[in-house]
Amino acid sequence: MKPNKLLFIGITGGIGAGKSEILSYIGKHYKCEIYLADRVAHEVKKPGTECYRALVDLLGWGILSSDGQIDKGRMAEKIFSDSSLLEKVNGMIHPAVKVYLLEHLERARAEEEVELFFVEAALLIECGYRQLVDEMWYIYADENVRRARLKQSRGYSEEKIESIMSKQLSEQKFRENCDFIIDNSGTLADSYRQIDRKLEAFTWQE
Hints:
There is one protein chain. The protein contains nine helices and five strands. It is of the alpha/beta class. A five-stranded parallel beta sheet has the order 2-3-1-4-5, with helices on both faces. The longest helix has 28 residues, at 84-111.
């Protein structure tokens, strides 16, 4: 039986937990739309958008590349030279990302072609998405597993891994704020079984 409403799900978890692999599987086998907050943040900064104009007004024309796009490196350089700017920039980008997602969510609801609507980001909880989504999912993996993955797949040093992990929520905080936990410490096949059990009421696609 088809669910009677579109389910809005947030996907979060620490670096190296394997969120991308989980979403890739879901995207292949379920009728869904998936949005990565980092990519949406890029979309809302494109020329012609309200966020683009606000950022240029705040940071100046020097953050633009020759084609008029906001240059990520130049913007970062500007922010790092004045720490007070980071909060202002986040105060422009995060709300714009939420508006973008909610507009696409309403369109998906109206079109009735998908059953699941996902947004993924490491900072979903910190950015207040708990109040927006129907369910928050935590992709968990043992810390040692995550460290090994980051060294192997991304070539990160122990120091870099430590720096990133120290800035992210604790496992306890993730668990306290999430409705469903996928343990992605083992094989992907095991993780896929956990997903399929959770989504058994939804349409499966080969």
